[in-house]
Amino acid sequence: MIDFGFDKLALIGAVALIVIGPEKLPRVARTVGHFIGKAQRYVADVKAEVNRSIELEELQKMKSQFETAARDVSQSVQQEVQQAASAVESAWKPEGSAEYAGLETTAPASLTSSGWTPAYQPPRKRWRMKRGAVPRWYKQRQGVRMHVQSGAARVARFRPPHSGA
C-alpha cells in the first residue's frame, strides 16, 4: 500500500488548507474520512468473502475425501462379509454329501398353503383423549392431576372412612 509519512501528510494538509480554505476544510476532512472508512470496510468485506470461499472449498475437498474413504470401507466390509458367508455355506453344506441332498431351504407347503392369515385390526385411536407432550409417568411422579374432579368428590375421596355403629 502507499506509504505516507508524517512529512507527506503535513505537506498535503498545508496544500489543502491553502486550496480549500479554513472554512470548508473541516467538512472536506470529514467527507474524506467517511469515504476512507467506507473503502476500508469494503476491503474487509472482500477479504472475508475470499476467506469464506477458500474455507468452503477446503470443506468440500474434505467431504469428498471422507465420502471416498467411507465408500472404500463399505466395499471392503461387503467383500469380507461375502467371503465369510461363502466360507460358512461351504462348511455348512458340503458338496456331494447324501445327507443334505433332500433338504429344502424354503418353508414347508403345510405352512404356506394353510390359507390362514391373521385378520386386520385397525389400531385403536383414542381421539377423544388429549395427549399432552409431558409423559404420563412424569405427571404421576410430580403429582399433577390428570383427571378433573369436583370439589365434593375430592372431599369425599380424602374423608376418613367413618366407622358405622
Can you offer a commentary on this structure?
This protein is mostly helical and 165 residues long. The chain contains five helices and no strands. The relative contact order is 0.02. This is Sec-independent protein translocase protein TatB. Keywords: Cell inner membrane, Cell membrane, Membrane, Protein transport, Translocation, Transmembrane, Transmembrane helix, Transport. Belongs to the TatB family. InterPro entries: TatA/B/E, TatB. It is a single-pass membrane protein.
Query: How many helix segments?
Result: 5
Low-confidence stretches: none
Order of helices and strands: HHHHH
Number of strands: 0
* Major beta sheet summary: none
Please sum up the structure shown:
The chain has helices spanning 6-20, 25-92, 109-112, 136-142, 151-158.
How would you describe this structure in keywords?
mainly alpha; TatA/B/E; cell membrane; protein transport; 165 residues; Sec-independent protein translocase protein TatB; translocation
Lay out the secondary structure.
Blueprint: H1 6-20, H2 25-92, H3 109-112, H4 136-142, H5 151-158
